[in-house]
Amino acid sequence: MKLFESLVALAGLLVITMYAPKVTADNLDNLAKSLAKIRSEVEELQSQLDLEKENHSSRIAALSSQLADLSVEERRQKVSIEKLQQSIEQLVANSKEAERSGENLKPELLDFLSEYKRQVQNGLPFRVEDRIKAIEELESNVAGKLIDPKKAVNHAWSLIEDEIRLSKENGIYQQTISLNEEKVLADIAKLGTVFLYFQTRDNRAGMAQRVGDSSWKFVLVDSSKDKEHIAKLFDSLKKQIRQGYFELPNPMKKL
C-alpha cells in the first residue's frame, strides 16, 4: 500500500515537473505581450501629451498676441478721449477769460468740433450717425451765430461727457448697420468703445472689425462656436451679468 502511494506521489511529481516549464513560458509570453501593449499605450499617450503641449503653447502665443492688440486698441480709445477732454478743458478756460470775446472763441470751438467729428467717424461704429448729427448741429449753430460760443462750449462739454460715459458702459442697444451692402436693423452688444457685436432678426451674428487703422466694417462670423459665444454674451448682458469670463471672436484682426 505504501509502495502504491509512493508511486502515485512520484507520478504526480513527474507530471508537475513536466508541465511547470510550459506554464512559466506561457506566463512570460503573456507578460511580454502585456508589457509591449503598455509600452505602446504609454508612447501613444506621450505623443498626445506632446501634441497638447504644442497646441497649448500655440494658443497661449495667439492669446498673447490678441491681448496685445486689445491693449493697443483700448489705449487708442483712451488717448482719443483724453485729447478731447484736454481740448474742451482749454476751451472752457478760454471762455472764462473776460477779455476774450465770443468771436475770438468761435474759431477754436469750430476746430475742436471738427476734430471731435473726425474721431467719432474713425472710432467704434456705434450710433455714429446720431453722434455726428449732434456735432454738426452744434457746428451749424456756432457758424450761423445762432448760439453764443460760450454756451456752445458748455454744450460741447456735455457731448464729451456722453463720449466718456460710452467708453465705460456695456449694454445691448439697437442700431441699423451696413451688412454686405444692405441696411439691417440689429441688436448691438457694446463693450465700452472697444468691442461691438451684433445679432440680426434672421439669426445672423457678427462683429465690428477694423479695416486698416481708421475705419470699421460689420462682418458675419461663420463658425457655430463663434455664434454660440456671441449668443452667450447677449444672454449675459440681458440678465445684467456684466462681469465674468467671455470667450469671443477677436475683432482686432484687421481685414
Question: Topology of this protein?
Answer:
Blueprint: H1 2-95, H2 102-122, H3 128-143, H4 149-168, E1 170-179, E2 182-191, E3 195-200, E4 205-211, E5 215-220, H5 224-238
Antiparallel strand pairs: 1-2, 2-3, 3-4, 4-5
Plain-language structure description:
The protein is of the alpha+beta class and 255 residues long. The chain is 65% helix and 15% strand. It is built from five helices and five strands, in the order ααααβββββα. A hairpin with a 3-residue loop joins strand 4 (205-211) and strand 5.
How far from one another are the termini? 103 Å
How much of the residues is beta strand, in percent? 15-25%
The largest sheet is: 5 strands, antiparallel
Strands ordered across the widest β-sheet:
1-2-3-4-5
Instruction: List the total number of helices.
Output: 5
Number of separate strands: 5
What spatial form do the alpha-carbon principal axes imply?
elongated
